[in-house]
Specification:
This protein has 17 helices and 4 strands. The chain folds into 2 domains: 205 residues, Orthogonal Bundle (Clc chloride channel); 180 residues, Clc chloride channel (Orthogonal Bundle), CATH 1.10.3080.10. By secondary structure, the chain is mostly helical. Helix content is 68%, strand content 3%.
């Protein structure tokens, strides 16, 4: 192939990636705007006017279970592709092990709306990411994209969903290239991921007028050995918190699937009953839904010292029993409220340690330290950048080979301290530990 033909192929592929990334970004930006606005409306409807709706959560679980059982399972070449695998199916699609389902996006949106309306503890970015993958798969099939580019466009769908959901297009761009594997950033997909994430973000905010929540750091400690020592110590706690959540959430899922023989309707009905009972015990709905009010409160005034633990249990039961939504905002809540509880003990500014907990807990749970660091830069406008960099990687290392998404592949172990074989998934590592 001569030089002229090489350049022609180069610009042809580059042009396609930009166009497809933009198409995915426009669609995901619009669908994410719908997701954010409708989710807020449904959550506020329950919280402010119809708190009794939480008692219908078990029935909502039956409906969700029926939808996923009836419409969420597809066999392709004798291989089950189950929409109930959520972000794990998206990750498997990036690796080429499974195929994204076009119907997955609408299904997860409906399931998320039901979960939020009736008081399940969940976020919403999970639905945006899965819709991103679903739209990318539709584009793949419409334009008959080759195998390599299919994976890259799935990555761009992840980026568009994450960037649009949080108003953080840089972090969103890197979410698509970092989410699928530990120890590797898939830079081959960075161009369409950047285009999709920024397009999705601006469509959501500029075209549809969606405003994202803001969290403000009032005071940042001065750089010192003592301050860094404190940050490292609390980051270890935030990393362990992410492990506790991941283990409980997946433990509940495994036990409920075993007890109810993978009957999704029975699992979700029972999980809904448990959430209703927990809500009555707590005596408020602070831990149902996103819990955004207490999350914001943790930046400027005291919250209950057990808030992080309550949210951990509510979210693990909700998602582990078969409801749907995102896990980032619940992790934000857990980390920020734990930070709020620790601020007096550590003698660190409340808003700073709450922000630190928000970011570090997400970093440990998602195994995406670069994304978490960029998230901190965008959310907090560059304040405390040195501290957040350290916190993200400390939490990432401390959380070990645990994850919100067991389908993540271990391209390289996090450290030589861990006796882990490259090329395995988090799920495979967990099974080996049990044996």
């Amino acid at each position: 192939m001569d030089t002229k033909q090489k350049y022609k192929n180069f610009f042809s592929i580059l042009f396609q990636w930009i166009i497809f990334g933009a198409i995915i970004g426009v669609i995901i930006g619009s669908t994410t705007a719908l997701l954010l606005q409708l989710n807020d409306f449904l959550g506020e409807t329950r919280e402010k006017n119809h708190s009794w709706l939480v008692f219908l959560l078990p029935l909502g679980g039956i409906v969700i279970g029926y939808i996923y059982t009836k419409f969420g399972k597809v066999y392709i070449h004798n291989n089950l592709h189950d929409a109930a695998e959520s972000n794990n199916l998206v990750i498997d699609s990036v690796h080429g092990n499974k195929r994204m389902l076009k119907r997955m996006g609408p299904i997860v949106y409906l399931a998320t709306f039901i979960t939020v309306l009736f008081g399940g503890s969940t976020g919403r970015e999970g639905a945006a990411v899965q819709m991103g993958g679903s739209v990318a798969e539709t584009v793949n099939q419409w334009f008959r994209i080759n195998i390599l580019d299919k994976k890259i466009l799935i990555m761009s769908g992840i980026s568009a969903g994450f960037g649009a959901a949080f108003g953080t297009p840089i972090a969103g761009a890197f979410m698509g290239v970092e989410m699928a594997a530990l120890g590797r950033i898939k830079f081959e997909g960075i161009i369409p991921c950047l285009v999709a994430s920024f397009t999705g973000h601006y469509i959501t905010t500029a075209a549809w007028g969606v405003q994202h929540e803001e969290f403000v750091i009032q005071i940042v400690p001065e750089l010192s050995v003592v301050a860094f020592a404190k940050v490292i110590f609390v980051s270890i706690l935030f990393g362990l918190l992410s492990v506790a959540y991941a283990q409980l959430r997946h433990g509940i899922q495994n036990v409920s699937e075993k007890v109810f023989h993978k009957n999704h309707m029975k699992r979700a009905f029972t999980g809904g009953l448990i959430i209703v009972i927990l809500t009555l015990i707590v005596g408020s709905q602070d831990y149902n839904g996103r819990g955004i009010d207490m999350l914001q409160q943790s930046f400027h005034e005291d919250v209950p010292p057990y808030a992080f633990l309550a949210k951990l249990v509510f979210t693990a039961v909700t998602l582990g029993s078969g409801f749907f939504g995102g896990e980032a905002i619940p992790l934000f809540f857990m980390g920020a409220t734990l930070g709020n509880t620790l601020h007096d003990f550590m003698n660190l500014p409340m808003s700073f340690i709450a922000a630190l907990g928000l970011i570090a807990t997400f970093s440990g749970g998602a195994n995406t330290p670069i994304v978490a660091f960029l998230l901190a830069l965008e959310m907090f406008h560059g304040k405390g950048v040195e501290f957040f960099f350290v916190a993200c990687f400390v939490s990432y290392i401390v959380s070990g080979h645990h994850s919100l998404w067991p389908s993540q592949e271990i391209h390289e172990p996090k450290s030589k301290l861990f006796n882990i074989v490259s090329g395995e998934t988090i799920e495979q590592v967990e099974k080996k530990k049990k044996h």
